[in-house]
Every structure is written in C-alpha cells, then in structure tokens.
Specification:
- The complex is a heterodimer of chains A (240) and B (179).
- Chain A has 240 residues and is mainly alpha-helical.
- Chain A has one domain: Ferritin, core subunit, four-helix bundle (Ferritin), CATH 1.20.1260.
- Helices cover 64% and strands 0% of the residues of chain A.
- Chain A starts with a helix and ends in a 6-residue tail after the last helix.
- Chain B contains four helices and seven strands, in the order ααββαβαββββ.
- Chain B starts with 5 loop residues before the first helix and ends with a strand.
- Chain B has two domains: 6-82, Fe-S cluster assembly (FSCA) (GMP Synthetase, Chain A, domain 3, 2-Layer Sandwich); 104-179, no CATH class.
- In chain B, the strands form two sheets. Chain B has a four-stranded mixed beta sheet. A three-stranded mixed beta sheet of chain B has the order 1-2-3.
- Chain B is elongated.
- Helices cover 21% and strands 21% of the residues of chain B.
- The longest helix of chain B has 14 residues, at 58-71.
- The chains are: A mainly alpha (240), B alpha/beta (179).
- The interface between A and B is medium-sized, with 33 and 31 residues.
Chain lengths: 240, 179
Amino acid sequence: MTATVPATTAALALGDDALVLSHRLAEWAGHAPVLEEEVALANIALDLLGQARVLLSLCGDEDELAYLREERAFRNLQLAEQPNGDFAHTIARQLYFSTYQHLLYAELAAGEGPFAPLAGKAVKETAYHRDHAEQWTLRLGDGTEESRERMLTALTALWRYTGEMFQPVAGLDADMALLETRWLESVTAVLTRAGLPLPEGPRTGAWSAGAGRQGLHTESFGRMLAEMQHLHRSHPGATW
Amino acid sequence: MVTATALEAELLDLAGQVPDPELPVLTLSELGVVRAVRVHGADRAEVDLTPTYTGCPAVEAMSLDIERALRAHGMREVTVRTVLSPAWSTDDITPEGRRKLREFGIAPPREQHAAGPVPLALGATRTLTGTHTPDPAPVECPHCGSPDTELLSRFSSTACKALRRCLACREPFDHFKEL
C-alpha cells in the first residue's frame, strides 16, 4: 500500500504514539505491582506495537523507522513519551491517551480514509485499554488516602500534555474539536465517579506542553530511545 | 467477487486445516482467520489471513505453516497477505471451534451478533468486593459449567484472553474475550 504525503505524516504521528507508548508500557515488565497487572500492561503494549507496525509500514521500513531515527524525527505526542513514574502516573497517562485513541479510532473507522481498516480493528482493542485505565482510575481515586493523593498528583502533572492531542495533523481526517469535547466529557465523568477533581491549569498555549508532533521532545525521551535503539544500532541486521 | 476454482477451494481447505500455533486444538478455519486463497498461473498461491489482534505474534508462525502446507501440495510460490478489513471478530469462531475451546479448558467468547464497540461494564475484581449485578450472559466455567464466575484480569496469557475464576469449583480459567 502506498500512502500520500499527508497520509504519511498522519501515519507517522499515530505510529510513533503507538510505538513510544508501547515501549514505555513494556518497561513495566518485571516491575508491576501484581502479576495480573504485569500481564495487562504487556498485553496493552503488544496491541500498541501491532498498531505501530501497521502504521509505520505505511511510511517506509518499520525497523528503520523505529530504530534508526534520531529523536527530532519522531512525531509522537509528548504525553506518550512521559516516564512511567509511579503506577498512578502510568494509569493517568493511560486514561488520557487511551480515551483519546479510542475516540479517534472510532471516528477513523467510521470513515473511508486510509486508516479505516486499521482503525476498525484497533478500536476494539483500545476499548479494553480504555476500560482498564478507567477501572484503575476509579479504584485509585476511590481507594486509600495514599492512592487518591498519588492519582491526583499524576493527573495534575500530565494535564498540560493533553492539549497537544487535539492539534490538527496533516492527513488525519478527524474533527479534532469534537474529539476534544468528547474526550473532556469522558475524562470528567470518570474522574467524577472516582471522586477526583478535574485538574486545573492550561492544556494549551503558554505553560502547556506540546510540539511533539513537530519533533520537539522532553528530556527523558532521548534516554528512552537510547535504550530502545541500542541493540539494533550495535548489531545492525542481527536476527534471532 | 470472483468464484473460487476447485483448486482454490481445495487449497483454502488445506490452509484452514493448519492448527493455530498458540491454541493447537483449533484449526485456522475454526478460528475464522483464513479469508481466501487465489491461484495465479499453475503454481502460485496467494492467501488472505486476518489477525485476531493487530499485534498478534502468532501471525508469522501461521503464515509459515500455511506456506509449508500449500507447498507440500505442489504450490511453488506461496504469499500470505495480512488483511485487516473487515476486522476479525470472535463471532468468526465456528461452533465447532467454540466446543473445542471449552473442552480445552478455555471459556469461549460470547456471541455478540451486532457489530460496534465492545460493551464494557464494571466487573468484580479480586481487589474489589461487594455487590455486583448478575450478568445477563454470564461466562460459564469450562470445567464445571457454573455461571458463577468472576473476572480476575481483563488480560491474560495472550492478548485474546481474560483471566477468570469459578466461584463454584474455585478453578481459575482463561476466557477468550469478546472482540
């Protein structure tokens, strides 16, 4: 399948989101609080990796794109690259991202654009990711004082990265303003049920984060890439 | 749509008989993942395979097994294409496939019929006790048949399964979750 230039821009953006978040989630392997959660995070990471492979293959060679690009060439959201932090940070990131991804894929799946086949498949997978994040948000928000405090800290810390998700992307045929409205409604509803306030502070403009789609990334991303790319760069062309 | 030739039907049947690499009790045809076989010229075959999950790592093993099976049947060149659309659903698993899953100790997916988003509901978890409303279509324990089972985790040993426990016989079991 060949994609047009705008479609490639969009495929790279969505593919990088999936790849980078997949890697972040995979970092939990061996560290998750309970075995079931270890398996859950690895499964979500695997779904995202599968989506990344399809999307990056629309742009070129998936391995070259994943392992041989420099930091500035990645087009993922800054939200996706944020470090795992404590478990609440990971869940807050999952809640923000999987809600967005699920809504976006549902819209793309309903259309007839180049991403409809993948989105039709992935929307069913991301429904489970979103549910997983929502369940944990409820449990942590409505849990102990400690879990509530940590969840609130995490939600607040990542809040400023959420505006970037709704910036227009060339080649992405989606109504971003409508997506944002639905996203806010959904996140607000989950937080209300969890007994948590919606974080305050800007999501766009000054003091918010963004520009991942333009290749600008946060400090920890370089270290993540170094680990992700090290083996491939040290042993080019190696196979198992 | 082009009607399949007798050879294509035969090859489709052969490809469908390949066992699933992760659930060898099921064939690929019972799983519903082999979509079509087209023959070009005398001995070139093209197979359409759809993944259960986008990231399903078994697709590569399935492709190799299909290639082997068709080559053994005289095909010189076998290409396996991964097709995403229409998306695979657990409703594509045949009744025979469901029966075999249950026999193997895996609760089969419930039928969904209507397309659309996966219905999600608050389920019981092992860290959350309390009342839970009875499920209109409960997942039955594949060991003792009891409808009284609880969800331990939405994710299990593979992407396509959830982990549950039977409250009657206390056995944990995998549930092929609806997709």
